[in-house]
Amino acid sequence: MKFPLKIIKNRSDIGAGTRGSDLGIDALEIAAINRENDFFNRHPFIDVPTHNETIYDKVNNTFAKRINFVAEQCQRVEEVTHMVLRQKYFPLIISGDHSSALGSLAGIKSAFPDKTIGAIWIDAHADLHSPLSSPSGNIHGMPLAAAMGLDNEIHAVNAIDETTRASWEQMKQMGVEGPKLLPEHLVYFGLRSTEEAEDKVIEALNIRHYPVHEVRHRGIQTCLDETINQMAGVDLIYITFDVDSLDCDLISKGTGTPVSKGFDPDEVIAIIEGLLSTTKVCCLEVCEINPLLDEKGNKMAETAFDVINHIF
Questions:
Q1: Considering only CA atoms, which of 16, 13, 75, 5 is closest in space to residue 40?
Q2: Is the pTM of this model over 0.85?
Q3: 3-class DSSP state for residue 92?
Q4: Which architecture, in CATH terms, is 5-311?
Q5: Which end of the chain is less packed: N or C, by CB atoms within 10 Å?
């Protein structure tokens, strides 16, 4: 990490299937306060305006819920991320739901259009659906497809209208025209809850993914060495840490789509720190903390804060 930290607070949850991840930032700050830690006072920050009031709007389709507003929110994140990077800060983006990761990637690419971007996706889910293939219509399952310009036509199960298609095209072209990253520059850690359409995309594009059991069996360092070697041709690396990559039985169910048999916090720290050692990492995003679903008080936010605080 070459530059000082600036925190981008993106309190949006309109791309998720359940409400409450917009409160994740406040939950993190409470976790810091309860630990008598002044992390959030030590670093400058920017609050990104949101469209959270749109949760009261009637959903007009089930295959891309609130896509026009999600596209606007991603655009806001893109602009702020671009600005922070050009100011020579390292953005720590704390988001509600994961849909806005598209804005983060687009902001990196628009700030450095001549650079090659790699992405490390620490997540239980692949986030590779499009409005055509999504079984839920929740756009937090679509940011990577938008970032890589994938429509998933051959896996289509939904017939989308022109308005939806226009918003999807806006998302695909955000920041700069065309894909923000190539499939060979994407690596998953912790993937374990996918749909058939996503599995077929991963197989067809030969996207590398390290399940939890492989990381433990072969060792974190071996998997990191392979990942770093795969990223040899990229200039900048974006890391996103979705807290559902953590084991919900070990930590808590304080996230929108909890999945068992995930990582423990030390493993996530080791993965992120190992990647930071390359000096190519230009941005870290943390997302999907939902304190309304936390059956253990504020445990998920406390755990995520411990990860953030240890790294920085």
A1: 5
A2: yes
A3: strand
A4: 3-Layer(aba) Sandwich (3.40)
A5: N
